[in-house]
Design goal:
The structure holds two protein chains of two kinds. Chain A is mainly α. Helix content of chain A is 57%, strand content 0%. In chain A, α6 packs across α7 (101-112). Chain A starts with a helix and ends with a helix. Chain B has helices spanning 16-28, 52-68, 80-95, 99-107, 123-131, 134-139, 174-179, 198-201, 203-216, 228-236, 238-245, 256-263, 268-271, 281-291; strands spanning 2-5, 32-35, 74-77, 120-122, 148-151, 183-184, 222-225, 252-255. Classes of the chains: A mainly alpha, B alpha/beta.
């Protein structure tokens, strides 16, 4: 079925290399290389419009997430920002239990290794700091993390599946 | 009523005013919030890029903590992303075979387990359905008459779990806003996406999405939000977006409990409008004038 309701409902479709409708066909056709050399699935904002409207009731948003997981697991780096950002986020959570926004962003900046990226966040950082809405923490690497045991067990269970 | 309260990470820092105004409003309306003890991050949109099991185990840890306390109460969540994740964890564990067992094996590392039955509620659901417009109208201190307020719902409070509103044409804010004396701005963008977390990694895309929203809200006095990500995305790039679109699109953005709290007479300490990033001078001027006029109670 190629009705295109997903594409018509997607706020990101206009900026994707392949529209969602095309992407799902590519998945069916097993065009792995083309899919993961594109950034299409990283442009999914998880708005769930496609999932809501799909006449087949397919879990399309969850499937976008599955593509993100494959890209991370297999080390595709077409998109240089997304995987490092989500990793920084999850590392911050593992360490402290709760995201420390400034610490998470510092991790992200270190990972992307592009000075233009942190610079683009300076204006927002200044506004937040002026209002006392930013916690200032530098990343704490090493040492034990609040959620180490949970993360470790989850990875162990995932590997055993 | 008593609720468990799960503030989530954003409400600790960048969305402090949402936390403060939610707590103050609920207290004023006579509800008790019990913060989930030792709560941790819900995983946001990040956990699912690493491991599906992690994306369920992280929120489930919080459901387990609430359950462990032995109190039976709905879990109130103001952040739409947290709401979705907690709600999704409950859904996956109750409906998918094997998921609850796997998640509980992971949680056992923390001496926790979750046996189902949590009622995860978005703040807007609680305000619109447990409380309703009645207490706002009855307790009105400062009428917002003359203000045009845009109800903006965003995505994850509405989809994929359409628990309390129409996920395409939401209306649950209408009666609450109308009870303050303000008029509800009629538009079609209330359920559209602001780009959420993509603002960090896909800024150009998000600016387009936000520009469409601000463009459609033109002519109103403020936009009311119920999510820290929506709030921040609508707040932070208004100048740039105005330049992009070649017309002034600056508009005040407030959290719904700030707006309701103001109309009920909460002082600034319970609203913290001073922390918002986008309030126009004319908007704050009008609020200041309104705060000097006391509405007749029971209007």
């Amino acid at each position: 079925m190629q009705c295109g309701t997903c594409t018509g409902s997607c706020g990101s479709a206009a900026r994707m290399e392949h529209t969602p409708r095309q992407l799902w066909r590519m998945v069916q056709a097993g065009m792995k290389d083309e899919i993961f050399k594109s950034r299409t699935f990283w442009l999914c904002s998880s708005c769930y419009y496609c999932t809501l409207r799909c006449p087949r009731g397919l879990p399309l948003t969850d499937t976008m997430a599955a593509l993100k997981r494959v890209a991370v697991a297999e080390g595709y780096t077409t998109d240089r920002k997304s995987a490092p950002f989500y990793k920084a986020f999850l590392d911050s959570v593992r360490k402290y239990g709760r995201v420390r926004e400034s610490e998470m962003m510092a991790r992200y900046f270190l990972a992307v290794k592009n000075p233009a990226v942190p610079l683009s966040f300076v204006p927002l950082g200044m506004k937040l700091m002026a209002r006392g809405k930013m916690d200032l923490h530098m990343p704490g690497f090493g040492g034990r993390g609040k959620l180490d045991r949970l993360y470790r067990k989850v990875m162990e269970l995932e590997a055993a599946k | 009523m008593r609720y468990f309260y799960y503030p989530g990470c954003s409400l600790q820092h960048s969305a402090k005013e949402y936390d403060i105004s939610t707590r103050a409003l609920m207290r004023l309306l006579g509800h008790e919030l019990m913060e989930v003890d030792d709560w941790t991050c819900c995983g946001a949109s990040a956990a699912d890029t690493s491991s599906r099991l992690l994306s369920i185990a992280l929120p489930a840890r919080n459901l387990a903590l609430a359950q462990k306390s032995g109190v039976s109460a709905d879990i109130l969540v103001p952040c739409s992303s947290c709401y979705l994740n907690l709600r999704r964890a409950e859904d996956a564990m109750s409906r998918e075979s094997g998921t609850a067992d796997l998640v509980n094996r992971a949680l056992s590392e923390e001496s926790l387990s979750y046996s189902g039955g949590a009622r995860v509620r978005h703040l807007l659901d609680v305000l619109a359905n447990d409380m309703g417009a009645g207490p706002i109208a009855a307790g009105l201190r400062h009428s917002l008459s003359g203000l045009s307020v845009v109800p903006y719902y965003g995505c994850q409070a509405l989809r994929p779990f359409a628990d309390f509103d129409d996920p395409e044409r939401p209306r649950s804010m209408d009666a609450l806003i109308a009870a303050t004396g303000a008029s509800v701005f009629d538009w079609n963008m209330g359920a559209k996406c602001c780009g959420a977390g993509l603002m960090t990694t896909k800024k150009e895309l998000c600016l387009d999405l936000v520009a469409d929203i601000l463009d459609d809200a033109k002519g109103a006095d403020c936009i009311a939000t119920v999510c820290p990500m929506c709030q921040m995305n609508l707040e932070t790039s208004q100048k740039r977006i105005s330049k992009m679109r070649g017309r002034p699109l600056e508009i005040s953005i407030v959290y719904l409990p700030q707006l309701l709290g103001f109309s009920l007479g909460l002082p600034e300490a319970g609203l913290r409008l001073g922390l918002n990033l986008a309030l126009t001078r004319s908007f704050t001027g009008r609020l200041a004038a309104m705060s000097k006029q006391i509405a007749a109670p029971g209007r």
